[in-house]
Specification:
Structural class: alpha+beta
Distance between the termini: 34 Å
Low-confidence stretches: none
Largest sheet: 7 strands, antiparallel
Strand order of the largest sheet: 3-2-4-1-10-9-11
Radius of gyration: 25 Å
Helix content: 40-55%
Strand content: 5-15%
Number of helices: 26
């Protein structure tokens, strides 16, 4: 797990001082080692060098010794040592008489199996690192190596012979990879902050701004909130030819299979899912440093820690890290204690307050790179910080389970729509009655949500208005967005599929929810120099779940994750598996914002706020004052206002 950065600048050459500064901005991703590759790609020399924190056993010169020399390509690397802690794991790493050079962020969990396969082909290895296995696999199979891997990864391979860069990102986008083409230069890296110094202008991206302000949505496509900076999408690779034209192509190499199978019983599906999940936990435990678990008390994290205990035995210590909120509704300490006791884990707990948030908020915003949806991201940050303090360098987390297995209550309405689409009318009405009994939402809202998946797309705007989901709330400046050419879209896209639930889950995995949750987790864990692993997110498990009937995922009595709960019987305590009250990782956003009124006022009424024409400040201020008086309920749009304004100021973004 590491940080990577690269720059190709054929016209002016690489400014090594500026390049080294950008690599230093991602030091937190890898405090254990640093390395650089400098190249003259048109037949000139290649120099492997280091910096102030390069492993002392590496006999390389310092990058500063080459200031004033011309290089058109530079690759930078910061290492968090997880596998093969020796200098043999140092990067950039070379292969095939230095034809190939790699900088790699992530882990290849099945590297031992791939290593054996390559050894059988005559390959000889120098290290025991997964990086060398990845590099050898690419040398032998090219882009085809990607489909053989189980892992999380973002990497770049420089091919000296082809004069090309090959970049790839893992199936789900667990690891970040951002890039920009501008002024004849190509720059890429693990975090936005490292790229910003190489942009001529730091302008807001209006479509991304609308998605964030209206829905709290980020990371949903290749665009970022900064114009000109893009994500390499999950499950894609990119090849850049190192020529004056900077020609490139982007190619998808994987997508989830969604064809439903009808030849498997619920019991058999649960058994197979148990096997797949336990195998995932087994390979995600491969590490040369301590591994712990982010424990929330829900079925996902409980399944991880109990499966971990299954593999490591009773004598090996397990560390669990938990955020505890004192709020009686969202607090989960009771459940954390139940699971910790069942697993025999050594528990570590962290708490937070409005004062803590106010003190840390600027650092949090800078580490996240882009705005985020709620203050729960701060609670997550404290979990990873505590993990590092406890000496836990690798953490397993349940991210992705809710998106694969319909863990959120809004999926109930979509499941009802699926039943109606399939002309299972009686079952559909019975399911709606079950939702009415168990949901805190009004019946009108439930029916409106269900109907939105049944009516023609041209009637969606009327349906959104009925339930208060217009594209432009009164505090957004519609004319500014119109002038910027923004064409708003609904948070979810209407689909024709008879299985609407699975269609929405696919959107959640690829566009709506999971991409931004993975960004939050990556930046929070890396800010603490901790590697976070997400064992629910492997291609075989995702493909298996998406091939199951919807009723296996969300049962007729509205049990979420039904087949997975059954799969974990006997491992997870029944009292946890039977829970129906888990509401997700939450913090008291409104309480914290109102306790920090003075700070919030300073942001909302400050100079930067008046530089953002996308906001109707007069209306925004009126709404905020009404919230403070108690005349208007708190909504998460308040956090989005504050987050956007403060982020724009810290990052010096032009609106």
């Amino acid at each position: 797990m590491c940080g990577i950065f690269g720059l190709y600048s054929p016209q002016t050459g690489v400014d090594l001082k500026a390049f080294e500064r950008s690599v230093s901005l991602i030091r937190h991703r890898g405090p254990d080692d640093e390395g650089y590759l400098l190249a003259q790609t048109r037949g000139g020399p290649v120099v492997h060098c280091g910096g102030q924190e390069t492993d002392r056993h590496m006999a390389v010169q310092n990058i500063r010794d080459y200031e004033g020399s011309y290089f058109d390509l530079a690759l930078g690397f910061r290492r968090l040592a997880i596998l093969d802690l020796s200098p043999l794991g140092h990067q950039p790493m070379s292969w095939a008489d230095e034809r190939y050079w790699i900088v790699f962020n992530g882990e290849i969990y099945n590297y031992l199996e791939l290593r054996d396969e390559l050894i059988a082909l005559g390959v000889q290895f120098r290290s025991s690192s997964d990086t060398e296995v990845l590099l050898a696999a690419y040398a032998h199979w090219g882009a085809g190596a990607l489909s053989k891997m189980i892992g999380m990864f973002a990497f770049c391979i420089y091919d000296r012979e082809e004069r090309s860069l090959f970049l790839a990102r893992d199936y789900f986008g667990i690891k970040p990879l951002l890039y920009s083409f501008e002024n004849g230069r190509f720059v890429f890296g693990s975090e936005l902050k490292a790229l910003l110094p190489f942009l001529s202008e730091k302008n807001i991206n209006p479509p991304a701004l609308h998605a964030y302000l209206r829905y709290g949505l980020t990371d949903s496509n290749e665009g970022t909130l900064v114009a000109g900076v893009h994500h390499l999408l999950p499950g894609h690779w990119m090849k850049v030819q190192l020529d004056e034209d900077l020609s490139f192509k982007i190619t998808p190499y994987w997508q989830i299979e969604t064809r439903t199978r009808s030849d498997i019983s619920f019991a058999d599906a649960a058994e197979e899912l148990r096997r797949l999940f336990l195998r995932n936990i087994q390979i995600h435990l491969r590490s040369d440093v301590p591994v712990g678990v982010a424990l929330s008390g829900g079925v996902d994290s409980s399944s991880i820690i109990m499966s971990m205990r299954h593999w490591v035995g009773e004598r090996v210590p397990i560390h669990s890290i938990s955020y505890i909120d004192p709020h009686p509704i969202i607090g989960e300490e009771k459940w954390v204690d139940i699971v910790a006791a069942a697993s025999g884990a050594e528990t570590h707990k962290t708490r937070a307050s409005a004062e803590d948030l106010e003190q840390d908020i600027d650092r949090l915003m800078i580490s996240q790179d882009e705005p985020f949806g709620s203050t729960s991201i701060y609670a997550e940050r404290r979990v990873f910080r505590l993990a590092r303090e406890a000496g836990v360098v690798v953490m397993l987390d349940g991210q992705g389970a809710d998106e694969l297995l319909a863990g959120y209550r809004p999926y109930f309405s979509v499941r009802a729509a699926s039943l109606f689409r399939q002309w299972q009318l009686l079952e559909g009405f019975q399911f709606l009655c079950t939702i009415f009994r168990r949901s805190e939402e009004s019946r009108l809202r439930i029916l409106s949500r269900t109907g939105s998946w049944l009516i023609p797309p041209q009637l969606h705007q009327a349906a959104r208005s009925l339930i208060g989901e217009e594209f432009y709330p009164d505090w957004m400046n519609r004319s500014w967005f119109d002038q910027a050419g923004v064409r708003p879209k609904a948070l979810t896209n209407y689909v024709q599929d008879r299985e609407a639930l699975k269609a929405l889950l696919l959107q959640a995995v690829t566009q709506i929810s999971l991409p931004m949750l993975l960004r939050y987790e990556d930046r929070n864990s890396m800010a603490a120099s901790v590697e976070s692993r997400v064992p629910f997110l492997t291609p075989d498990l995702a493909n298996f779940v998406f091939a199951l009937p919807e009723s296996y995922i969300l049962s007729k009595d509205a049990e979420t994750k039904s087949v997975f709960r059954q799969a974990m019987r006997g491992l997870v305590p029944d009292v946890v598996s039977d829970r129906r009250d888990k509401i997700g990782f939450a913090t008291p956003d409104g309480e914290w914002m109102l306790k920090s009124q003075k700070w919030v006022d300073g942001v909302l009424y400050g100079e930067k706020a008046h530089q953002i024409p996308a906001l109707q400040l007069k209306t925004l201020h009126q709404n905020w004052e009404a919230i403070k008086r108690g005349d208007r309920p708190f909504g998460l749009e308040v956090w989005r206002w504050v987050n956007l304004i403060r982020w724009g100021d810290l990052m010096q973004i032009s609106f």
